[in-house]
Predict the 3D structure of the following.
Amino acid sequence: MKITIARLKRQRCGASSEKIDREIEQLELALEGLEMAGAAADPTPAADDAGSNATATEQLLPPRRRGKPRIAADAPREVITLDPGERCPDCGGVLRLVGEDRGGSGNLHSGISGLSA
């Protein structure tokens, strides 16, 4: 039941979040009632029980990944240089190379493109 509550707490976003909040409250009340009934029947302290259940819950849930994965420094890089030619075919203006290689940015494809001046 604690695992279900933890899963529902992570799903609180979205259109049905109010329904999930109500379901979480109901499950927490039911869990509290079960824990109280279990505590009355079992003389062992509840603090030890809660610690072991939290650990079990953490072990069952996969770790959350945050952000983009890092690209290894030794990953192969491909530099693409596009030759814009000498003049713009539309206006006849002089074309030049723009851009630079961003060494540590993690881009696999760093390119240089041509634009009209």
